[in-house]
Design goal:
The protein folds into 2 domains: about 90 residues; about 260 residues, no CATH class. The chain contains 17 helices and 2 strands. The chain has a two-stranded parallel ribbon with strand order 1-2. The N terminus is likely disordered.
Length: about 375
């Protein structure tokens, strides 16, 4: 079905693709608050206020973003772009949405490399790193309430991944897959065709591995492509994966640098997973940042454009939904475990403990934008280190 002639788009307010993509360029520039907030902005602006997207299309895109691996907000944006103008629309919207935060991360990365050894920069990140622990803890709590409910099996999967992540400080991919398989077997037995449709998504990174590109940049690209295939719902789900591989496996970053990388993602608007560009920059400069960003987002783009044409056929598949719910529970558990892992590196004295607890309390009590909270933590850290 051609997206341009789809019956779901005939009643829309027609705007040029440049204007449509321009909205996502704006959202990527000013959109803070994580995937749920960004998805909410898209509904309010594109569906309710402007009439550029039908409510049915938005709901279907949101469901696709929840089912398929990849950061939710980026997937939803790419899907809406696909409905607007096919491959061209998906590409234009995807680039427009990611580009602003990517450029901001590049600037922050360059400043970090140049000034990271100076006392004032260290003082800022002393406070920021502690605040990030509070932010991630709050996000883990919200995700737990949203994804697990009172389902005892999902809580069991969550607990196993939370404990294993906190204990080993590593990404245990087979446990993620096992969580999906266990929930799948308990809920409904899959047919062979359905199992193939679900598992085929997991082998996309292997295609990139055989692309014939060698060297450090290829290694960066492939690593982040694999990591991106296990991000379900929240971009924070990639954090426990990245820590084990980036710090312990490849030794690309130190513990301190990794926490700073997560902090940079919190400072900038757009998708949280843009933190990979910071990591790539520290490893191999601008080329490394580009390779990391392509690695994390290209599989997302391919998943959307491959699944969108047949979305109606498989979206309500009970077996696929059961598998995804199991993986999502595992990812949520890993995020919770990652809070403990990262806290060991960022919360190590009375001031950092106080900053982390205060950040968590503020987020539970008031709807304070995360960048403002981080800016305040940076000032507190700077004062403490230079006081």
């Amino acid at each position: 079905m051609n997206p341009e002639t789809s019956p779901t788009t005939n009643e829309l307010t027609k705007v040029p693709l440049t204007q449509f993509a321009g909205y996502f360029l704006w959202l990527g520039t000013v959109g803070f608050g994580g995937p749920i907030a960004l998805a909410g902005h898209m509904q309010q602006d594109l569906v309710d206020n402007r009439g550029w997207v039908r409510k049915e299309d938005y709901v279907e895109g949101l469901a696709l973003a929840q089912l398929a691996p990849g950061p939710l907000a980026a997937q939803l944006a790419i899907y809406l772009g696909y409905l607007r103008a096919g491959l061209l629309g998906a590409t234009a919207v995807g680039v427009a949405f990611v580009l602003p935060s990517f450029l901001m991360v590049l600037g922050l990365s360059a400043a970090y490399v140049r000034f990271g050894g100076l006392p004032w920069m260290q003082g800022m990140f002393y406070g920021i790193g502690a605040a990030v622990i509070g932010i991630i803890a709050r996000s883990a709590f919200k995700l737990t309430k949203l994804t697990l409910g009172k389902d005892k099996l999902l809580w069991g999967i969550f607990t196993v991944l939370a404990v294993s992540t906190a204990w080993t400080s590593q990404e245990i991919i087979w446990l993620f897959l096992l969580g999906g398989v266990v929930n799948l077997l308990v809920r409904a037995l899959p047919s062979r065709a359905q199992a193939r449709s679900a598992s085929s998504l997991l082998f996309l990174p292997g295609i990139f591995t055989m692309a014939g590109v060698n060297g450090t940049l290829a290694e960066i690209f492939v690593y982040f492509a694999k990591a991106g295939m296990f991000v379900f719902g929240s971009g924070l789900a990639v954090v426990p994966f990245l820590y084990g591989g980036v710090v312990q496996g490849h030794h690309w970053l130190t513990d301190r640098q990794f926490v700073d990388a997560v902090a940079v993602a919190m400072i900038t608007p757009g998708p949280v997973v843009i933190t990979v560009a910071f990591i790539g920059y520290l490893v191999a400069g601008v080329a490394g940042a580009v390779a990391a960003a392509l690695g994390i987002f290209l599989p997302v783009y391919l998943v959307v454009i491959l699944l969108a044409p047949s979305y109606q056929r498989w979206a309500k598949n009970s077996q696929l939904n059961a598998f995804v719910r199991g993986v999502t529970a595992a990812a949520t558990g890993a995020i919770s475990g990652a809070v403990i892992v990262l806290a060991r590196r960022s919360v190590y004295d009375v001031p950092t403990f106080a900053i982390a607890i205060a950040s968590l309390a503020i987020l539970f009590r008031w709807k304070v934008p995360e960048p403002i909270l981080i800016a305040c933590a940076a000032l507190v850290g700077l004062a403490l280190r230079h006081g």
